[in-house]
Amino acid sequence: MPRNEPTEVTGEWDGGRSTKRRKAVRYAVPVAVAGVAAATIGLVPAFAGSGSPDLPKISAQDLIAKIAKSDVQQLSGTVQVTTDLGLPSLPGGAGVGGFGGGQGGEKGAGGAASPQSKLTELASGTHTLRVAVDGPEKQRVSIVGGSADYTLIHNGTDVWAYDSGSNSAVHHTAPRDAHRGPQRGAPEGFPEGLQGATPQELAQQALKAAGDTTSVTVGDTAKVAGRDAYQLVIKPKQAASTVGSIRVAVDAANGVPLKFTLTPKSGGPAAIDVGYTRVDFARPAADSFSFTPPKGAKVVNGDEAARQHGKDLKDLKGAKGAKGAKGATEHKGPKDFGGFDVLGKGWTSIATLKGAGGPAGKDQLAKGDAGKFLDSLGTKVTGGFGSGHVFSTRLVNALVTDDGTVYVGAVDKQALIAAADAAKK
Q1: Rounded to whole angstroms, what are the CA distances from 167 to 32, 99, 100, 292, 402?
Q2: Which of 6, 117, 211, 313 is 20 to 30 A (C-alpha) from 151?
Q3: So what's the pLDDT on residue 366?
Q4: pLDDT tens for residues 140-184?
Q5: How many domains, in total, are found in the chain?
């Protein structure tokens, strides 16, 4: 059967800054999906159906333009998420992932039903989401579990989160025009900064890298969720990157990205991926976005809980900052350390945080029980920078030096060491 011939883009692309592209990204998938899927972006590769559809040839430039012109505002369907980052297990059996944390008691300002309480659960394993969207004002996503479901609903100014396992709900109020803000529709109550994890947003971010560091081609056609699709293939040209390739399946009829798959350079199954197993572009039923807490449910006012949580933190900081408070140790953020910086560009960018060990912690990370603990989790390394430990996943690696400086990025171990060496010169 004829296949689409690969075509390559290596020049600069406008990064999706056109008005039409922003509109497409804003409406194409629920804000709720963006918040829930943010911690993990995975999809089983077998979603591509048997046989490749015979579609007209298209260039990479034209396929990118097709994505930009897409203006889908209604859809419903099922998304399957599988993440295999190779995260290390912590001593004592602690770790990330596993559905059902909603039954574990209070988590965050909103308790078990707080959206933030679900993020770490999606960091590994396989999860099924059911989604619906009707423009920027109405979105719904449910995480379907074996014994309990978790649902987020945005309808106008109302944002509800409900955990059936604990029979608890959190209500937030979203501004009526929230979708016009800088976060493109993230209503209050969703985790901040985690809206860019839908297939559409992921495709946009990946295409922004198209330049002299990236190869963009069109691969074979595919069937995704029963839809004919082209596949945009994005590959880093920088050797130190741990990313092997990114494959974006694009609906041949309407230009909506249906599947996003990131495969590490080391091979094996996809590490980060998200996509539809079923999708319908008809308007969902209006009652899909209605919610009334079940009888007996514990309902939390999320706005008030967040305000109180902020007040408690402010009072605690004030108390710890008072002179003469014996033994008080104030919590420190990045601004209290030596500064946050980004080294390099493109796929091999490395984020650095200096002095994460604090002034009193200099050279203490390698000593005593702390050193033994780090040895059990990471690999001891040395270089011109001194010594430290590298902590590895299938995609992201981090170097923590013994003086407390952290280097992290989707790069190999040698790139981290080289960055640390260069910083000492």
Answers
A1: 20, 15, 12, 12, 46
A2: 313
A3: 54
A4: 999 887 778 899 999 999 999 999 989 999 998 887 655 443 333
A5: 2
Residues 276 and 174 in one domain: yes
pLDDT one-digit tens code per residue, 409-422: 999 999 999 999 99
pLDDT digits (tens, 9 = 90+) for 83-129: 888 876 544 444 443 333 333 344 445 566 666 666 667 778 888 98
pLDDT(326) > 90 = no
Domain edge (last residue) among 254, 289, 324: 289
Percent of the chain with pLDDT over 90: 38
**What are the residues whose beta carbons fall under 8 Å from the beta carbon of 293, sequence distance 6 or more?**
160, 162, 169, 299
Are 169 and 160 in contact by the 8 Å Cβ rule? The answer is: yes
Token pair 């650095």 is found at: 352
Residue 362 is assigned to a structural domain of this protein: yes
Asked if residue 175 is part of any domain, the answer here is: yes
Question: 356 and 279 share a domain?
Answer: no
DSSP 167-211: TEEEEEE--TTGGGSTTSS--BTBPTT----SHHHHHHHHHHT-S
Q: Tell me if 324 is assigned to some domain.
A: no
**DSSP assignment string, 341-360:** EEES-GGG-EEEEETTT-GG
Do 275 and 360 sit in the same domain of this protein? no
Whether residue 257 sits in one domain with residue 110: yes
Does residue 319 fall inside a structural domain?
no
Query: What was the pLDDT predicted at 189?
Result: 39
Last residue in a domain, options 255, 289, 323: 289
112: DSSP letter: G
Residues 53 and 153 in one domain: yes
**252 and 362 share a domain?**
no
Give yes or no: residues 121 and 258 share one domain.
yes
The answer to whether the beta carbons of residues 218 and 7 sit under 8 Å apart is: yes
DSSP conformational letter for 385: T
Mean of per-residue pLDDT scores for the chain: 73
More confident call, 26 vs 205:
205
The verdict on 238 and 347 lying in the same domain is no
Q: How many Cα neighbours within 13 Å face the side chain of 57?
A: 9
Judge whether 85 and 272 are in contact, CB under 8 Å: yes
Residue 82 maps to which CATH number?
2.50.20.10
Lookup result for tokens 């003086």: 403
Q: How far apart are the first and last CA of the chain?
A: 57
Domain containing residue 117: 8-289
